Amino acid sequence: MSHFFSTTLYSSIRSHAQRTPHEVAVINESSVISYKLFALHIDRVAHQIAARNIPAGSRVAVAVGWGYLHWLVTIALMRLGLLSASASMADLQTLRADVVIADHDLDYPQGRVIQAEASWAETNAPLLLPLNEPQHDPHAPARIVLSSGTTGVPKLAVFTVDEMARRARADVIAYKLGPSSRMLSVMGIVTVGGFALPQATWTAGGSVVLIGLHKDQPLPHLLRHGPNTIFISPTQLEAVVKTLPRDFVPTHQLDIYVAGSALPRHMSRQTRLRPSQSLWIVYGSTEMGTVTLAPAVIAEHQPGLTGFVIPPAQVQIVDESGSPLPPGEAGEVRIRTEGVVTEYLDDAATSALCFRDGWFYPGDVGVLGAQGELHIQGRLRDVMNFGGVKISPEVIDLALLQLPGVVEVATFMANDDSGNQSVCAAVVAGKDFDEASLVRHAAASFAALPPLRVIKVDRLPRNEMGKVLRRELPGLGTP
Questions:
Q1: Cβ distance 308 to 374 under 8 Å?
Q2: Residues of CATH 3.40.50.12780 domain(s) within the chain?
Q3: Is 384's pLDDT higher than 80?
């Protein structure tokens, strides 16, 4: 499959447009766009942007609401060698953008605003002269993706041209993408899944479905457009499954990949009973991409299992000195693979901490089995210490999730009425929930754990990837 891979995403799209011009590249709500037309639209948008004379080295934020135009602007910026990021309005300050390209009125005194218009891609415009194509330095920064930011301000992970190409190659292999693939990433382009999976699909010559979730019947609405691969967060999957009609029957094979946070057991079962038996759990991150995959039916019976390490990824569990630990022992996770970013913009200290000696340290505590199976036990910074006994809140969460009536749970420390720290569990409760049973189970399972305080909530705070925002949990425990 090596002929699929080119230096840039645009060069791959242009190659497909030359070799298979009538194959489908994009499926929108109201149109199907061939590779030939897709490449032409990118060319026209690139000309529009080039005419605005954005200086080399600028950080360009794309804040365009229409998904197709957003992608055209993004790929055009890559073609022109300009560093870009997809951003919500709240992200602009974090990005320190010099230029913002938006399709709506925007007040941004910190930089220049360029108004994007759908007419940029009109194909009945006069023929264009060839652009002066830049030489793409493989080590030049090309794309900024904001990390999930579960504990504070998101970090700015920066991909070079070469790292983007390597990430695309790794994703094509991991997700078995090819010309027959129809990829739908329900996560938005501001997330790494919403960016990387479409990029890999176009690299492989497949089709990308750019359709948002429908309010009433999201899955039947999406399936009308024929996706055979869906990338989705647990929160989004729950919204999809809950609204399925009683008589719903899938019309074709569907591979569903769930990433961003743990998939509750009840959601795993409901999904496999109705939309698809082919349900997969993904472990990875903005910085490193996909590291492990596991069939949900296996992960359901092994709490904490994230999956089996997918080549070319390599995973080690190390102690505090950085020495590798044998299989079965818990320690800090470190990873190296294709397409890993090597720095955060504007944050040299965190870069030095997370990227060391060719390895990425995501800050997870985990156990690696003899067969390459990875169990994640939580985050290093979240580990709670009770009289010298260290317990990860995620380990407690996994134990409590096994109880009847516990739909979701997140354990955390918060001040009690006396101002002392206590252990709390925020619980989304189902009909069979029994608070006393949960407290007894926690005490029996973790002898060092102080008495648990239960706080019932309607939902847990989560980010766009579905990860629990643990920094917001202590507010739930405030009297």
A1: yes
A2: 2-376
A3: no
